[in-house]
Amino acid sequence: MTIQEPPLPAVEPKPRPEPLPDPVPLTGCPYKSNPYPLYERMREAGPVHRVLFPSGVQAWLVTGYDAAHAALNDDRLGKNHDRGNDRWRARASIMPEPQHSQLQVHLLHQDPPKHTRMRRFVTDAFTPRRIESLRPRFQELADALIDALPDTGPADLVAGFAAHFPFQVLAEVIGLPQQLAARFDRDWGKVVQPVGPTDPGRPLYEARLHGLQSYIAQVVAHKREHWDDDLLSRLVVARDRRELSQEELDSMIFQLLVAGQEPVTNQITTALIALFRHPDQLARLRDEPDLLPRAVEELLRYDSAFELTTWRFLDQDDDLHGTEVPAGDSVIVSLCAANRDPRRFPDPDTLDLERTPNPHLAFGHGIHFCPGAALARTELQIALGTLLTRLPGLHLAISDEDIEWIPAVLGRGTNHLPVGYDRRR
């Protein structure tokens, strides 16, 4: 007698994911507030996708950890804007001439051997040993900003802390005198946010650009008259010795002033928002300050302020991880998508302050690895440790849905972070 097995229940086939558009638009509030669901879809569909930015620029976006790591170390991909083709140049060269030629020849837009020659002028100022020796001074700056906050909340932690602390630290590191540092307008940093020639905001954009360019000229003139043993003075001397061109000097100061401040300001806000969304982790970090170094690495991985890298270009049509990319089209690496790749990070959407190892790509990789990484790490440790210690009961004072994420193409952060706290210690 044959005993028949009961039939297995029918298994409903998984619905096929909706195909991604081509190009994939990287626009809109839902995307800026939480890009990670879209990045997950893109990773699952493949490592390289054509994307569309709000300015109308199209590019090839690299997602996934392995593909991103390889692209950041790919000798075929150059950074110099001269490699861009006419299609890219028609929309992406947003900064007008002559400012584009005068301010865009910094390290982020150079290839070896020029990149190697220019980078050696800045590395000594940002060594981990030097940064660690300045930690007590950085702590003084952080405490002074906390002292100026209201005794009890509410307060805006961007206006009251995050917008100022990174620039004050930067001024100490590069030798920007206090009287000049006090005249720096943070609004000038918005010149890295694309505003097309027909945009209604173009006149304001160009006014910011001219203001920043005039400020850089004042910095150079001051350092030429008041030389000291600091980074800015050494850059001016290198120009006078013809080791740097005037455009290289101005561009490197431009990069220091903008890239050295705004990303850290934004990273403080993204880290705090992540902790506010995980109050148990916030409480643990407050109670276990020795966890700060590892926690900062996880917060950098979990939601990086440098969401996307700047442009890279192939100098001839070539294959990029199975996708044919034309010469001169822009290739951009999604650092945030790489840092949430489950093939590299177990439970990548979980905030694990003890995660180890944690080889995130928040500072890039390869020859363009951020020279200020040690400084940024120290700033974040001091900022978070000071805020959590001196503002007990720190919490978000608005609903999560009311956070206004900046519309920057490459970065993540918010210009306002209203918080409450019990009292200021």
Automatic annotation (TrEMBL):
It comes from the Bacteria. Residues 1-12 have a biased composition (Pro residues). Transmembrane segments: none annotated. InterPro entries: Cyt_P450, Cyt_P450_B, Cyt_P450_CS, Cyt_P450_sf. Residues 1-28 are annotated as: Disordered. Keywords: Heme, Iron, Metal-binding, Monooxygenase, Oxidoreductase. Belongs to the cytochrome P450 family. This is Cytochrome P450 hydroxylase. It comes from Streptomyces albospinus. The lineage of its organism: Bacteria, Bacillati, Actinomycetota, Actinomycetes, Kitasatosporales.
